[in-house]
Amino acid sequence: MIPALTASDVARGTARLLWLHGMTAIAEVPLADGRRADLMALSPAGEIWIIEIKVSAADLRGDHKWQYYRNWCDRFAWAVPPHLAPLLEDDRFAPDGCGLIIADAHEAITSRSAPLAALHPSRRKAVMLAFARLAAHRLMRQQDPNLGPY
User: Fold this and answer.
1) pTM to 2 decimal places
2) Residue 148 lies in a domain
3) Burial level of 70, CB count in 10 A (0-12/13-18/19+)?
4) What share of the chain is helix, strand, coil (3-state, %, to 5)?
5) Does 21 reside within a domain?
6) Phi/psi of residue 91, nearest 5 degrees
7) Would you call 26 helix, strand, or coil by DSSP?
8) What is the helix (H) or strand (E) element at residue 94, kind and residue range?
9) On the CB side of 65, how many CA atoms lie within 13 Å of its CA?
10) Enclosing domain of residue 28
11) pLDDT tens sequence across 116-135
């Protein structure tokens, strides 16, 4: 029996796919509205992507917050293990407006491209600044875990 994939597994495979396309991704990104993006990525063209990760049908069906993520990115995509991909064809998950990435712990494929819905320039600047500061903050904490409070 193959063990079930975790969200970390899917995030890893998805981040590898994004990396191969020249993108950098970070996990668990707080948004200004209080929500948290599973993965946020920045493309070479400066596009901001949010990827929502689901590893169980119950979690997917119970998610009613995913539409709000589209306010904070240029492209939105789901990342799921192979067995969940057919569920993302349901109209309630906006297959025409969301990308679909099928992933495991080692690799991923783009099953459906994420359409572009460009952010307003002021929102883009704020999100990019928050992304950069979060990445730098995490790097500093990794280099010096004894830093004082932020």
Assistant:
1) 0.92
2) no
3) middle
4) 40, 25, 35
5) yes
6) -55, -30
7) strand
8) none
9) 14
10) 7-143
11) 999 999 999 999 999 999 99
